Amino acid sequence: MYLLAADVGGTKTIFQIGRLGERDHVAEMRLQSNDFPGFATMARTFLEAVPDEVRANIQVACLAVPGPAISGDHVLSNLPWKMDSGELERSLGIPRVLLINDFEGVAWGASILSPEDLSILQVGAAHPNGPVLVVGAGTGLGQGVLLRDPTLRVLASEGGHVDFAPTDPLQFALLQRLQRRYGRVSTERVLTGSGIHELYVFLLERAQENNEDKGKKSAQVAQEVASAADPAAVIAQHALSEDDLLCQETMELFIHIYGAHVGNAALHPIASGGVYIAGGIAPKILPLIRAGGFMQALRRKGRMAALLAEMPVMVVQNTKVGLLGARRYAELFLNGQVQPEALPPAL
Length: 347
Known about the structure:
By secondary structure, the protein is an alpha/beta fold. 39% of the residues lie in helices and 22% in strands. The protein is globular and about 65 Å long.
């Protein structure tokens, strides 16, 4: 008996097929999401490369998808796709297709990570039955909560779409500029790959208005950023290399906003079980996160600072954590340990 898992992202999607009860996989493929008009077409591309005997014996598929997955009918938040579990069952010939929120998948995956998958930012003192927060910036800003009460269950969340909450004059100026451009400003507007570019443009325009741009950027780096398919990667790399002051200031601002948001999110469930920083960005900029600003902003919560200082905080280095979580959920479903219909809706 086989199961299919997929971590569906706005940039890429990873597929995997495994046998129930085994850790290894029999097939895996990474595809660019934007190369396909819909999920079913992309899934068939993967399944066509799988042996017939395996494909014919897939009993369940679990798809971790961006956005609130509270029914079998789902519209993705970062892709122009609509996904319906019933239609996918018929189209792909799989008896049961389950849709879960992408960071619900990350939370399930976090429950089975090994120490080698993690980089510790704060040791803290984990409460064995305390809620665990997972949060991560990438193409979007995802969140979820893992509960142990006493059995494992996960609460999905769309907390990345809360209003951006500035914490200092520079961030207030950022909010005002973004409000003029977009109206309402969510935290996801700034804590994503595209958000890094937004911060860079904001700081550049601010420096130009104040006649302070000379010496803050090199013309070569500015050209690289302007022409790059992924400006955030260019900005982060020059910040890591410490060869462009504007890129360094951009990532410093990003990290302070990121830490403050994670601290806010950790207070909601009182994440005494720990905080996992996932997503595609954190592992790539870990030296910048370790420099201190992230954890300072996370703990800067007045009377709640001591509470936050007790929470273990870790960066997830395993880039397949969402895929692991989707597969874990599919296994639990086949074993009768979770019932999707009985789960509470997304927070």
